[in-house]
């Protein structure tokens, strides 16, 4: 475990600024309001679930948090500092990492190289060193490979380091993608459906991993798999049609009638589809 | 080339001990040369082996073949740069012939001013690099067919400048280039080593081979470095690359500039080798044959760029000769060359999408497997995953 060498985040006592905050964010796609005045506050080392039916706006919310989607209105802040016009490449410097819904690995790179790209911010050598093959560039490469190997080991994928993604089963690809996000040593980690397509054994292991990560980072978990969400989250935000319909600890959210209605609505819609098909 | 990281991370056994007895130090050195532990070591070894082969060829083959090797050298330089752009960074360029023209014309304009030819060629490369910054900045915002169209416009339009500024650039006739004579030190060294004076043709081939060797060495370094890795990442998935903090625009422009500098160098060598720069030498056909070479050789592999260049340089005279011997008229025989190009290209697409380099790799792999145990096929990813799952369950 690398948590021993990891800087603990500033203690988040009452009144301290949240590690990351989204305030009153609205995103419209043409006539569709994907996010409607959504707010989200993340404490240090909190595991925060974001759930909601398909199309509720969960991925859009992550896109806003990572600078891929400019909100039509609303603000973002990191540890109390407002983030104006956030661009994706600034994320690593803000200590933010994210996995993509699905997998999103670089298909021409081995698992190790994929993770090394995630560790790229730790490089030291510049272009000239790379061009001339100076020892500095080689030392850099070894250091990044070392970090990448330990990240792969942490997600239990150490032995596939030299494989291309296409040669890996889907659950292992997801592990590699997770390692690529972890290796940047983020303080805030956004996970978009990490359990999607995984079997129950893999999901149990993922739950353990998320709990371990929470010792050193804030984790935002977008997930449909309710058992996982209820098991690992400290707090949960429920989205429906782009609006926050509930926030609270797992027990409170589970008992919330609005949440039950949203999911019931989805289920009856699904039932209708099944009926007509 | 994706296995480079893995290969280089194997710790080198038997590092030479500073205090060890001379014999073991020597054997450690031999071991290191035979199996270099770092990419740099491998690239240096490749450079030396290549130099030995090229020198042997240049001293043994006919003057006609020597001039063909010069031609090969500038194709290799341009194609190596293009494979970095297209194969490794995923940006297509149909305009590299025009960037070669920038290098060639700059060289031709500077040589009469009395500059040493190396300075002239390097200035040509810088000029092409500057054009590359402009084109690359535009290219970074374009995708697929739009990028192809924009660079195609460059290929068609830029040589037209030679007509517009006919006074300085020589119009349709172009500019003739005074070929540098072999300097005394080169002639002396050549005589000392091989017992004969070098011909100008040989001297030019040495220049071309030197440029090609250095370019391949430097690009191989880049390819195995952080830049090769992130260029490929940007090529494969823009969103994931951006999430990792990579600046797509900058990296794309950088790839374009490196590639343009190579094209400029190639144009300079072409100017020396053909003793002439004219619009007819930098047509769209040149740009397309560069792309053809890169695809035939295998996108993204520097070895492939060399192999593809060899096909483009040696195949046309070969089939033209065969055609003439088969009783075709000169005109008919000349038409065989583009036909074979096309045919080879189609065959490569169908049977070996990873090009000549991929073919060689696969044949090599089959040979090694036949040679005996110890290099069995890698375990399937599934087994590996299964094992790690089991291990994790045991520990929890
Ligand atoms: N780029 C876009 N342009 C137009 N509409 C979009 C775009 N991205 C998302 N949407 C729409 O916005 C709504 C929210 O989508 P989003 O992907 O955020 O949902 P989600 O909660 O992540 O759903 P899922 O659980 O299926 O992943 C959906 O109706 C979707 O169709
Ligand atoms: Mg989603």
Automatic annotation (TrEMBL), chain A:
<dbReference type="InterPro" id="IPR027417">
    <property type="entry name" value="P-loop_NTPase"/>
</dbReference>
<dbReference type="InterPro" id="IPR003593">
    <property type="entry name" value="AAA+_ATPase"/>
</dbReference>
<dbReference type="InterPro" id="IPR003439">
    <property type="entry name" value="ABC_transporter-like_ATP-bd"/>
</dbReference>
<dbReference type="GO" id="GO:0016887">
    <property type="term" value="F:ATP hydrolysis activity"/>
</dbReference>
<dbReference type="GO" id="GO:0005524">
    <property type="term" value="F:ATP binding"/>
</dbReference>
<dbReference type="GO" id="GO:0005886">
    <property type="term" value="C:plasma membrane"/>
</dbReference>
<keyword id="KW-0067">ATP-binding</keyword>
<dbReference type="Pfam" id="PF00005">
    <property type="entry name" value="ABC_tran"/>
</dbReference>
<keyword id="KW-0547">Nucleotide-binding</keyword>
<dbReference type="InterPro" id="IPR032823">
    <property type="entry name" value="BCA_ABC_TP_C"/>
</dbReference>
<keyword id="KW-0813">Transport</keyword>
<protein>
    <submittedName>
        <fullName>Branched-chain amino acid transport system ATP-binding protein</fullName>
    </submittedName>
</protein>
<feature type="domain" description="ABC transporter">
    <location>
        <begin position="20"/>
        <end position="266"/>
    </location>
</feature>
<dbReference type="InterPro" id="IPR051120">
    <property type="entry name" value="ABC_AA/LPS_Transport"/>
</dbReference>
<dbReference type="Pfam" id="PF12399">
    <property type="entry name" value="BCA_ABC_TP_C"/>
</dbReference>
TrEMBL record, chain B:
<dbReference type="GO" id="GO:0015658">
    <property type="term" value="F:branched-chain amino acid transmembrane transporter activity"/>
</dbReference>
<feature type="region of interest" description="Disordered">
    <location>
        <begin position="367"/>
        <end position="396"/>
    </location>
</feature>
<dbReference type="InterPro" id="IPR001851">
    <property type="entry name" value="ABC_transp_permease"/>
</dbReference>
<protein>
    <submittedName>
        <fullName>Branched-chain amino acid transport system permease protein</fullName>
    </submittedName>
</protein>
<feature type="transmembrane region" description="Helical">
    <location>
        <begin position="44"/>
        <end position="62"/>
    </location>
</feature>
<keyword id="KW-1003">Cell membrane</keyword>
<feature type="compositionally biased region" description="Basic and acidic residues">
    <location>
        <begin position="380"/>
        <end position="396"/>
    </location>
</feature>
<feature type="transmembrane region" description="Helical">
    <location>
        <begin position="306"/>
        <end position="327"/>
    </location>
</feature>
<feature type="transmembrane region" description="Helical">
    <location>
        <begin position="114"/>
        <end position="139"/>
    </location>
</feature>
<dbReference type="GO" id="GO:0005886">
    <property type="term" value="C:plasma membrane"/>
</dbReference>
<feature type="transmembrane region" description="Helical">
    <location>
        <begin position="74"/>
        <end position="94"/>
    </location>
</feature>
<feature type="region of interest" description="Disordered">
    <location>
        <begin position="1"/>
        <end position="25"/>
    </location>
</feature>
<dbReference type="Pfam" id="PF02653">
    <property type="entry name" value="BPD_transp_2"/>
</dbReference>
<keyword id="KW-0472">Membrane</keyword>
<feature type="transmembrane region" description="Helical">
    <location>
        <begin position="339"/>
        <end position="360"/>
    </location>
</feature>
<feature type="transmembrane region" description="Helical">
    <location>
        <begin position="280"/>
        <end position="299"/>
    </location>
</feature>
<feature type="transmembrane region" description="Helical">
    <location>
        <begin position="203"/>
        <end position="222"/>
    </location>
</feature>
<keyword id="KW-1133">Transmembrane helix</keyword>
<feature type="transmembrane region" description="Helical">
    <location>
        <begin position="146"/>
        <end position="166"/>
    </location>
</feature>
<feature type="transmembrane region" description="Helical">
    <location>
        <begin position="253"/>
        <end position="274"/>
    </location>
</feature>
<dbReference type="InterPro" id="IPR043428">
    <property type="entry name" value="LivM-like"/>
</dbReference>
<keyword id="KW-0812">Transmembrane</keyword>
């Amino acid at each position: 475990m690398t948590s021993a060498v990891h800087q603990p985040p500033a203690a988040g006592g009452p009144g301290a600024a949240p590690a990351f905050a989204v305030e009153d964010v609205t995103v419209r796609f043409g006539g569709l309001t994907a996010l409607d005045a959504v707010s989200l506050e993340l404490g240090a080392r909190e595991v925060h679930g974001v759930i909601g039916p398909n199309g509720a706006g969960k991925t859009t919310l992550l896109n806003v948090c990572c600078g891929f989607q400019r909100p039509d209105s609303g603000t973002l802040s990191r540890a109390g500092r407002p983030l104006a016009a956030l661009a994706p490449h600034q994320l690593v410097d803000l200590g933010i990492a994210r996995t993509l819904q699905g997998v999103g690995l670089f298909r021409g790179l081995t698992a190790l190289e994929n993770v090394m790209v995630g560790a790229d911010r730790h490089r030291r050598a510049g272009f000239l060193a790379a061009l001339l093959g100076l020892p500095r560039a080689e030392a850099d490469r070894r250091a990044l490979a070392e970090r990448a190997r330990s990240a792969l080991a942490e997600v239990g994928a150490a032995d596939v380091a030299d494989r291309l993604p296409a040669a890996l089963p889907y659950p292992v690809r997801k592990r590699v993608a997770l390692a690529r996000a972890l290796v940047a040593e983020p303080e805030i980690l956004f996970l978009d459906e990490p359990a999607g397509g995984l079997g129950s054994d893999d999901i149990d292991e993922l739950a353990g991993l998320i709990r371990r990560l929470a010792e050193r980072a804030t984790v935002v978990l977008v997930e449909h798999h309710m058992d996982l969400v209820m098991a690992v989250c400290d707090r949960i935000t429920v989205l429906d049609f782009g609006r926050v319909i509930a926030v609270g600890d797992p027990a409170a959210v589970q008992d919330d009638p609005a949440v039950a209605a949203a999911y019931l609505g989805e289920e009856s819609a699904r039932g209708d589809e099944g009926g007509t098909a | 080339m994706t296995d480079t990281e893995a290969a280089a991370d194997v710790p080198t056994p038997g590092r030479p001990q500073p205090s060890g007895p001379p014999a073991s130090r020597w054997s450690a050195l031999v071991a290191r040369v035979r199996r270099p532990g770092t990419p740099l070591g491998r690239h240096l070894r490749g450079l030396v082996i290549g130099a030995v082969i090229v020198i042997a060829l240049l001293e043994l083959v006919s003057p006609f073949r020597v001039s063909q090797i010069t031609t090969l050298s500038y194709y290799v330089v341009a194609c190596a740069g293009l494979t970095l752009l297209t194969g490794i960074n995923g940006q297509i360029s149909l305009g590299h012939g025009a960037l070669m023209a920038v290098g060639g014309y700059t060289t031709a304009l500077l040589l009469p001013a009395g500059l040493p030819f190396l300075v002239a060629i390097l200035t040509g490369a810088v000029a092409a690099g500057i054009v590359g910054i402009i084109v690359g900045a535009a290219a970074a915002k374009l995708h697929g067919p739009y990028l192809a169209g924009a660079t195609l416009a460059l290929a068609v339009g830029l040589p037209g400048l030679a007509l517009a500024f006919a006074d300085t650039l020589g119009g349709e006739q172009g500019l003739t280039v005074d070929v540098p004579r072999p300097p005394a030190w080169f002639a002396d060294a050549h005589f000392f080593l091989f017992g004969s004076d070098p011909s100008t043709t040989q001297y030019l081939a040495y220049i071309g081979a030197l440029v090609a060797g250095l370019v391949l060495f430097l690009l191989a370094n880049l390819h195995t470095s952080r830049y090769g890795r992130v260029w490929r990442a940007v090529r494969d998935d823009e969103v994931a690359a951006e999430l990792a903090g990579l600046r797509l625009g900058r990296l794309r422009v950088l790839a374009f500039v490196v590639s343009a500098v190579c094209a400029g160098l190639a144009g300079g060598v072409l100017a020396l080798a053909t003793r002439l720069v004219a619009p007819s030498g930098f047509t769209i056909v040149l740009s397309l044959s560069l792309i053809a070479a890169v695809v035939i050789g295998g996108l993204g592999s520097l070895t492939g760029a060399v192999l593809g260049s060899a096909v483009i340089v040696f195949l046309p005279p070969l089939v033209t000769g065969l055609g003439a011997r088969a009783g075709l008229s000169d005109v008919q025989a000349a038409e065989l060359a583009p036909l074979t190009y096309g045919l080879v290209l189609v065959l490569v697409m169908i049977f070996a999408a990873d090009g000549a380099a991929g073919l060689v790799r696969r044949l090599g792999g089959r040979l090694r497997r036949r040679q005996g145990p110890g290099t069995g096929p890698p375990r399937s990813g599934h087994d590996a995953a299964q094992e790690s799952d089991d291990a994790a369950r045991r520990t929890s």
